[in-house]
Amino acid sequence: MHIEDAQRDVRTVFAGGFYGQMVCAVIWLASAALATWVSPKASITTAVVGGFFIYPLTLLSLHVSGRSAALASGNPLGQLGMQVAIGGAIPMLLLVPVAQLRLTLFFPALMIIIGAHYLPFIFLYGMRAFLPLSAALAGGGVLLALYAPHSFSLGAWIGGAILFVFAWVLRFSVPASAGNASSY
């Protein structure tokens, strides 16, 4: 299987990343609501535990929408997807000392980590639309850490909003010829 075919398969099966981004956005926005109206502990717990369920919830969303969640047999990018997921989880360990040092830096730091995590998606999906998503999250995290370091919930709200907007950007970045436009 050629790389372009494998990328097209990933784009088609995962709808350009739309469902995964929507799952992420919902988790982040739920965490933001908890940060605002309940407690930082409830918010962080939701973000961390929810993060472990992004892929299964994405598969469930695809199934509920009537889409297949299986890549073509022999698609080598399925293994890369798993490596990207694990590679995105390991840097999360940095959040422990960051939150101990200053709790309000949890979401800006998470935005930076998640922003970096999206860079390999450019190759995985063969979509440059992941570059501005990566830059918006990482850059937003840096700006929040520098200019709004005292707000705990602001990073969660902004991160959730960025993920929500980019879910739609990704949806419309996949051409109709890929078979996705009418099946969302």
List the helices and strands and how they pair.
Layout: H1 3-13, H2 18-37, H3 40-52, H4 54-64, H5 77-89, H6 95-101, H7 106-117, H8 119-125, H9 130-147, H10 154-173
Helix pairs in contact: 2-3, 2-4, 2-10, 5-7, 7-9, 7-10, 9-10
Keywords for this entry:
mainly alpha, disordered C terminus, 184 residues, single chain
Your description of this structure?
The chain is an all-alpha fold and 184 residues long. The chain has one domain. 72% of the residues lie in helices and 0% in strands. The chain contains 10 helices and no strands. The protein has helices at residues 3-13, 18-37, 40-52, 54-64, 77-89, 95-101, 106-117, 119-125, 130-147, 154-173. Residues 179-184 have low confidence and may be disordered.
Count of domain modules: 1
- Largest β-sheet summary: none
Give the SSE string: HHHHHHHHHH
Instruction: Say how many strands there are.
Output: 0
What would you say about this model in short?
The chain is mainly alpha-helical and 184 residues long. It has ten helices and no strands.
